[in-house]
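Aggregate trends can hide what the representation actually does to any particular protein. In the encoding step, the backbone of a single protein was reduced to a row of integers, each denoting a local shape. The record that follows shows the chain in one-letter code together with its fold in token form.

***
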Amino acid sequence: MVQSCAICLSQCDSPVSTPCGHIFCQTCLSEHVLLSNGFQSFCPTCREKFPIAIPQLQHLPHSSHQFILPSVRRVFLDTSPDPQAEDLKRRLKVAEDCFKEQSTAHMLAISQLNRWLELRASRESERATSLELLYKNGKYPSRRGDFYNTSSPSELSPVKIGIKRRRSDSSGDLDENRKSSTSSSSRLPMM
């Protein structure tokens, strides 16, 4: 696992650790320690104090303190990627690609279904409108009650109208004009 420095917020370059266990870049922590006054510094993350020089060496110049930091230890981090993490990343990428393909296929199927439903609804609406116009014009007054008693346009279809018409033809309720016409002209026109 690659650590990031809390000071520069980038990947640790030559990492070092404070006594409290926080890891920083060596250059970032050295600059932080050099800015502190006295013989103590503090952790930039948790503010825990730690000594930066041995008290007997207090007379050394401030510029040499970077070489005498007994509290700060060099840390060697394994920056090679974890094989399990790499395998999980690969599996995640495959699953993400599969999900994208499936979602695209589903979106296409849904859009086709929506177009089909819209087309079907417009056809039913056109049928209902044309039947309503025929009934309102008085061409089929005996069926006007059937049309207005239905709750949806799908309940009134030309097939049902034809079946109802044949039943009324067989009952003998035909007027004189229909008796004289041929059998092909006695049927209702199918929409």
The beta strands are 15-17, 23-25, 40-42, 49-51, 73-74. DSSP finds five helices and five strands in the chain.
